[in-house]
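User: I'm putting together a small comparison set for a docking exercise, and I want a reference complex before I start. The sequence is below, and the ligand is flavin-adenine dinucleotide. Could you produce the 3D structure with the ligand included, as C-alpha cells?
Assistant: Of course. I'll restate your input first, then give the C-alpha cells for the complex.
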Amino acid sequence: MSPSSPVLRSLSDRVRQVLLFELGGLVLITPPFVWLSGVPLLESLGLLAIIAFIAAVWNGAYNTAFDWVEGRLTGRTADRRPWPLRVGHALGFESGLLLISLPVIMWWTGMDWLTALIADIGLALSYVAYAFVFNLAYDRAFPIAAPAPDPAPRIETDADLSALNTLGLRARAARLAVIERADQVAALTARADWAGTPRLVLGGGSNVVLDGDFPGWVLRVAIPGREQVGEDDTAVLVRAGGGENWHDFVRWTLEQGWGGLENLSLIPGTVGAAPIQNIGAYGLELAERFDHLEAVSLEDGRVRRFDAADCRFGYRDSVFKREEAGRWLIASVTFRLPRVWRPVTGYAELAQELARRGPPEPTPLEVSDAVIDIRRRKLPDPAELGNAGSFFKNPVVDADTLAALRARPPDLPAYPQPGGRSKLAAGWLIEHAGWKGRDLGPVGSYERQALVLVNRGGATGADVRRLAEAIRADVAERFGVELEVEPQIVSVPPSGRP
Ligand SMILES: Cc1cc2nc3c(=O)[nH]c(=O)nc-3n(C[C@H](O)[C@H](O)[C@H](O)COP(=O)(O)OP(=O)(O)OC[C@H]3O[C@@H](n4cnc5c(N)ncnc54)[C@H](O)[C@@H]3O)c2cc1C
C-alpha cells in the first residue's frame, strides 16, 4: 500500500471500537474512582458518563487523525503499530482528554481546580493503562483487512497515443488500459467488449509504427518489480516486471554487482518487450542471458511459462513475432546473470572505445558507460527527435549473393555468420543508395546513421511507410537485397485484426 493512501478502519468498525472502549471504561474505572475521590456513586457515574461522552468524540477524532498520520508517514496500518508508539498514542490521547475534562470535573463536583486536577490525573492515568490494554486487545481481535486489489485496470477511451510512441506519430486508441498486475488481463478478457476486438500490447512504444488510429484495445504494460529469485553455481537469477524500464533495470543489475547485461545498456523500451525481438547490441543478444518468462494469454488471461527453447530466439526474432504474435502479454522476464563475468568486447567499436577510455580490465559498469557514450554519439534521443531506432534489420545473405554483391561495391562490409552466411550492414546499403540525411515529406533518414528514420515534425504512419518503401525499393534495385522492416507496423483495417 502506498504511504499516500493509508488503510483506515471502516466507519462501523470505528464506532464499535469507541463504544466498547467507553463501556469498558465505565465498568472498570467507576468503582475505584468512587473509593478514591469520595464522590458518591451516582454522581461519579454521571461525571464519568459525561467524560465518557467527551472522550468518545475525542477518541474518534484522535484515533482517525493518528492512524492517518501514521499511515501516511510509514505506510503502516494501526494494527501493526510498534510498542513505543502505542505508549505515545495512549499518552497523547489522555493528555488531550485531561485538558478538555478538567473544567467539567470542577463544574460537576464543585471541586477546586487543584483537587479536580488530581482527580483528573488519577482518571487519566487509569485510562492510559486501560487504553493501552484495550487498543492492543481490540487490534488483535479485529485486525484491519487490506482492501483487495482492484482487478480492473485503469481504462481511458479515445486515448491519445502520440506521447506513447517514440516516433511521436499522431494516433488515437479507442480504449487504452494500463496493466499494472498480470491478473488485470483476465479482468479484461472477461468483458463483453473484449472478444473479437483488435488489441495491441504496448511497452515504451520504441519499436512500433502506429499507422493510423487503433480501433480496439491498447494495453500499456506497467507491471513493476525487480528481484533476485535464485542462484546456482553458475548464475544469479533475476526477475523483472514487464513494465520496468529496460535501461533502468540493466543499470540496477550492474549496481547490485551482477554483470551480464551491460552491452544492452540504453536500449529504449520495457523489459516485457525485450524478448519480443530478442534485443541485441554490441555483440550481445538478450537470448544469451535469458532464463524464462511469464506471459498472460490475451484470449483467457491464463499464465504460461516460456523457457528459452519455447521462445525460439533468432536475430531480432522470437516466436512472439511469428506463431504466437499478438497472443500474449509478457508480465515478467527472468534472466541468468553469470557468476563469473567476462566482458563481451568482440564488437570492434566497443573494443576501441574501451581501449580509449583506459582500464585494461573494465568492470561491467565501465562497459555499460562505454556503450552509453557510443550510443549517445550515434543515435538520436527519441525525446528530442522522434525515431524507432534501426528501421531495417541487417540482411543476412548466402555466399553466392554476397559474391555477386561484392562484385559491385568492393568496400561493402560483411560479417561472417554461422552456416557460411554473411550479415550486411543495412545502414551502409541505405547510405550508398543515396538516402543518408535525405527527407521525404516530414520524415527522413538520420544524417549520422542512415538506418534510423526520424520524424522531423507532425508525421503520420503513412509518411513513415512511404519513406520506408522508397528506401526499400532503391536498395533492392541497386544491390538486389530486400530490406526487412524491424519495428512492428500497427495498421488495422476498419474491421480486422492488426
Ligand atoms: C533510439 C533507439 C535505439 C534502439 N536500439 C536498439 C538496439 O540497439 N537493439 C535492439 O534490439 N532494439 C533497439 N531499439 C528498438 C527497441 O528499443 C526495442 O525493440 C525495445 O525492446 C522495444 O521496447 P518497447 O517497450 O518500446 O516496445 P514497444 O515498441 O512498445 O513494442 C514493440 C513490440 O513488442 C510488443 N510488446 C511490447 N511489450 C510487450 C509485452 N509486455 N508483452 C507482449 N508484447 C509486448 C508490442 O506489441 C510490439 O509488437 C531501439 C529503439 C530506439 C528508439
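The pocket of flavin-adenine dinucleotide is lined by residues 166, 200-208, 221, 242, 267-270, 272-274, 276-277, 279-281, 328-330, 379, 382, 387-389, 488 (CB under 6 Å). The chain has a mean pLDDT of 91.
User: Thanks, that's exactly what I needed.
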